[in-house]
From TrEMBL:
It is found in: Membrane. The chain crosses the membrane at residues 38-58, 65-89, 101-122, 134-154, 166-184, 218-236, 256-274, 286-310, 316-338, 345-363. Keywords: Membrane, Transmembrane, Transmembrane helix. It comes from Nonomuraea longicatena. Residues 37-187, 221-362 form the Sodium/calcium exchanger membrane region domain. This is Ionic transporter y4hA. It is a multi-pass membrane protein.
Length: 365
């Protein structure tokens, strides 16, 4: 009994439960300033708890399964949030999926990659990784992004930057199939392509010398991870009215709200990627960032294809000219970063400038 009391009082257990309780109390209610600030503090604690439990699971199952668990778990909950908002918001949310997915791609491929590279290269001058696995992941992200976010701008079967019903079904099936093929490649056929490597190119398993957590501990962490992630996404939604009010008061575009919420939702991946980079495991950072971008597209498009049966109004997926330029530049820069299998502080700066450009243009389109 004393053991379980101590276990519950551990912050990694107590915080997710507290966050879920805060979500239950705050859901569907407008929050005054002080409760909103308290909810934000609990949200931050839930993010840290999610990262801890993700790392426990990753240590138990090994790479790249650990990165995949966190990326898919966050994305599934995020997709559920997007679909629920679109079903309840009507025509006003016609571009929500596009804006959220594009924000996720820019945050992961430039923001998370850039800041992880910064920490990795400040410690070791040169960050090393497996170019074969990372190149395949980048090619998958680029294909999914182009198929789902660029082509709708140029198709002619439907009015506006949107797919026709048949085109949307094709894009959904293709996205899901391509994502499934990548997961098979990453976890079964070529798992060694996604393991961290030493500076002489030898693949290593993260935390080889640390004691592996038991299966029971890993299962408890999996449950607490899901609780923490549900709380993170839910509290981000609860905070959105306050964010919308702040954005409106500042005279900023409405799209900024989606960017802020995407930043909050992707905090667990960001912290986990930075921690991996500081441990000289930059490959894990890449697995998290590109895996999250891929899951965001590969799972969102099929979900909204199904939800479109109940959605009102058009489903706008095609990007505008400015965002297409940013996406093309991101793919080109990421390719040049990945091909050598080694990156320096310069590549970090380039990715972070691209990320800053995305944020600036969201504020000042």
């Amino acid at each position: 009994m004393i053991y379980y009391m101590r276990r519950f009082l551990d912050w990694t257990v107590a915080v997710p439960v507290l966050a879920l309780l805060a979500l239950a109390l705050a859901w569907g209610r407008p929050l005054p300033l002080i409760p909103a600030i308290l909810a934000a503090i609990v949200l931050a604690g839930a993010v840290l708890a999610a990262v801890h439990h993700a790392e426990v699971i990753a240590h138990r199952v090994g790479e790249p399964f650990g990165s995949l668990v966190l990326a898919v778990a966050v994305t599934v909950i995020e997709v559920a949030l997007i679909v629920s908002l679109m079903l309840s918001g009507g025509a006003n949310t016609s571009s929500l999926a596009r804006d959220t997915v594009f924000a996720a791609v820019m945050i992961t491929c430039n923001g998370i990659v850039g800041i992880s590279l910064l920490f990795a290269t400040l410690k070791r001058r040169v960050a090393v990784f497996n170019a074969e696995g990372t190149g395949g992941a980048l090619a998958t992200v680029a294909t999914l992004a182009t198929l789902s976010l660029v082509l709708p701008t140029f198709t002619t079967s439907a009015q506006g930057p949107a797919f026709s019903s048949a085109q949307l079904i094709f894009a959904a099936v293709a996205s899901l199939a391509l994502y499934g093929l990548f997961v098979l490649t990453q976890t079964v056929r070529h798992r060694d392509y996604f393991l961290p490597v030493t500076h002489d190119g030898k693949a290593v398993t993260p935390d080889d010398h640390a004691p592996q957590p038991s299966g029971r501990t890993a299962m408890v962490s999996l449950g607490l991870l899901l609780v923490a992630l549900v709380s993170v996404v839910g509290l981000a939604k609860v905070e959105s009215p306050l964010i919308e009010k702040a954005v409106s008061s500042a005279g900023l575009p409405q799209a900024v709200v989606g960017v802020v919420i995407a930043l909050l939702v992707l905090l667990p991946e960001t912290i986990a990627a930075v921690r991996a980079a500081r441990r000289d495991q930059f490959q894990v950072s890449l697995n998290l960032s590109l895996g999250s971008a891929m899951a965001s597209i590969g799972l969102t498009i099929p979900a909204i294809a199904v939800a479109s049966l109940w959605l009102e109004g058009p489903l706008l997926l095609g990007l505008g000219g400015t965002h297409m330029v940013l996406l093309a530049l991101t793919v080109a820069v990421s390719t040049l970063t990945v091909v050598p299998g080694r990156a320096t502080l310069l590549q970090s700066g380039v990715h972070l400038v691209l990320f800053a450009s995305f944020l600036f243009l969201a504020v000042s389109p």
